[in-house]
């Protein structure tokens, strides 16, 4: 009997340690992703920095899509607003960017974070960016009203966050809010299915084409402003 109890205890400990290891691997993913940025070419001062989550990270054609604007992509997939704050020092100050472009909050919503929490973190990130890059402008991109958000019942939260982002940019000379959702929806406000992949969240090439059609002129305008 004692042998059986000991065996069960050892198995339980082993499984527990295995679970901790898997959790640690998940937690270590972001530092590894961010550490890779240090091995990439240092962007020239005065360029454009893209930060945020996987909508930007998966944008593999961003350099050619935004050309001739000098853009650098430092987004990392799965990140929430708290992660952007945690790794802020490794990403934003060293870019010496003239324009910083933010897309984050979608993963917060999927992880049941409240709009007030998301907007507070966004404001904290804005304040830190202003302190680190006092001559830079900031562009806030709307959270995308993707089919996944519709199916999971998150559209109200998405709209509330976007309303808050728009409000943050109101009467701020260094902040611009860009709503990219209109070009991703039809006249009835329904998502254009050709813009999204099988997960109904991330973009197809058509989605990125439409994103570029709105973002490129907005970034060009803001990058040229003093």
Structure, briefly:
The protein is of the alpha/beta class and 226 residues long. The chain has helices at 2-37, 54-57, 62-66, 81-86, 88-91, 106-110, 115-132, 147-151, 155-169, 205-224, and strands at 48-52, 71-73, 99-103, 137-141, 175-178. It has a five-stranded parallel beta sheet with strand order 2-1-3-4-5, with helices on both faces.
Description:
The chain is built from ten helices and five strands, in the order αβααβααβααβααβα. With 226 residues, the protein is α/β, with parallel strands linked by helices. It folds into two domains: 1-28; 40-224, 3-Layer(aba) Sandwich (Rossmann fold). Strands 2-1-3-4-5 form a five-stranded parallel sheet, with helices on both faces.
Strand order of the largest sheet: 2-1-3-4-5
How would you describe the shape? globular
- Strand and helix order: HEHHEHHEHHEHHEH
What structural class is derived from the secondary structure elements? alpha/beta
The CATH class of the largest domain, by name, is Alpha Beta
CATH superfamily of the largest domain: SGNH hydrolase
Q: What is the fold-level CATH name, i.e. the topology of the largest domain?
A: Rossmann fold
**Residue share in β-strands:** 5-15%
CATH architecture of the largest domain: 3-Layer(aba) Sandwich
Quote the distance from N terminus to C terminus. 78 Å
What's the number of helices? 10
Described by strand count, sense and barrel closure, the largest sheet is: 5 strands, parallel
Q: Residue share in helices?
A: 40-55%
Mean of residue pLDDT? 88
Q: What's the count of strands?
A: 5
Rg measurement, Å: 20 Å
Number of domains: 2
Poorly predicted regions: 2-26
